[in-house]
């Protein structure tokens, strides 16, 4: 029983495939064109990029740079050097007051004499600038040394003058450290 219709069809299909190749529709042709021409161009571009990429830092590798590593392994805590002779970088009395002293002296917290409270400051002002400065530097009563901050003595002095003058004193701005050193020579 050779040559049944079924058998013939199967045979013919296989035969056609062998001669026409895999591309049978315009859509398949479009894909074939794409992969034959466009894909190689893309691959070449990517390869060229890859070859020249060693000069650019790869994503995430900035963390291995010398500076980044140094920043990460630096000892805990660092010191900041203040140029106490450069008056321009130092805070004014008002700035120090706002940053450090106002916490107590604006409200009278902890029994602090309030800013511009003449009655509270009057007797203190009479003790003189040096006495007030000493209190501010070393602390007095509920006030910690330097008012609890880390300003230079000169800056504290400016804040004392600011506070005291608001409280009725007429103290002069303290001399800058360099000027004071020069004056004492
Ligand atoms: C933690 C609160 C607090 C802070 C912050 C603070 N003070 Fe005082 N201050 C006080 C108290 C309380 C007194 C009153 C102390 C007393 O007479 O027992 C006082 C008193 C003073 C006096 C008068 C001292 C005297 O001999 O009568 C001066 C001057 C002064 N403070 C300056 C400053 C300056 C300048 C700062 C900021 C750098 C500052 N204070 C920050 C609480 C504070």
UniProtKB/TrEMBL annotation:
One family name in Pfam for this protein: Cytochrome_CBB3
Keyword Electron transport: yes
Organism: Roseateles toxinivorans
Residue span of region Disordered: 1-21
Classification via InterPro entries: Cyt_c-like_dom (IPR009056), Cyt_c-like_dom_sf (IPR036909), Cyt_CIE (IPR002323)
Comp. bias intervals (Basic and acidic residues): 1-19
Residue span, Cytochrome c domain: 88-167
PROSITE patterns per UniProt: CYTC
Taxonomic lineage: Bacteria, Pseudomonadati, Pseudomonadota, Betaproteobacteria, Burkholderiales
Protein name: Cytochrome c5
Keyword tags: Electron transport, Heme, Iron, Membrane, Metal-binding, Transmembrane, Transmembrane helix, Transport
Ranges that cross the membrane: 29-51
An example Gene Ontology molecular-function term: electron transfer activity
């Amino acid at each position: 029983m050779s040559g049944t219709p079924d058998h013939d069809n199967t045979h013919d299909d296989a035969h056609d495939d062998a001669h026409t190749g895999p591309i049978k529709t315009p859509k398949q042709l479009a894909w074939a064109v794409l992969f034959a021409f466009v894909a190689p161009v893309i691959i070449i571009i990517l390869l060229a990029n890859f070859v020249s990429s060693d000069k650019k830092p790869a994503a995430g590798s900035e963390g291995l740079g010398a500076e980044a590593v140094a920043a990460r392994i630096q000892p805990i805590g660092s010191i900041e050097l203040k140029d106490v002779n450069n008056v321009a970088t130092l805070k004014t009395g008002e700035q120090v007051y706002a940053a450090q002293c106002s916490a107590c002296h604006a409200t009278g917290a902890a029994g602090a004499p309030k800013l511009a409270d003449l009655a509270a400051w009057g007797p203190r002002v009479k003790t003189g600038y040096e006495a007030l400065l000493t209190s501010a530097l070393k602390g007095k009563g509920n006030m910690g040394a330097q008012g609890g901050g880390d300003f230079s003595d000169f800056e504290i002095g400016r804040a004392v003058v600011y506070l005291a003058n608001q409280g009725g004193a007429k103290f002069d701005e303290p001399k800058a450290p360099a000027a004071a050193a020069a004056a004492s020579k």
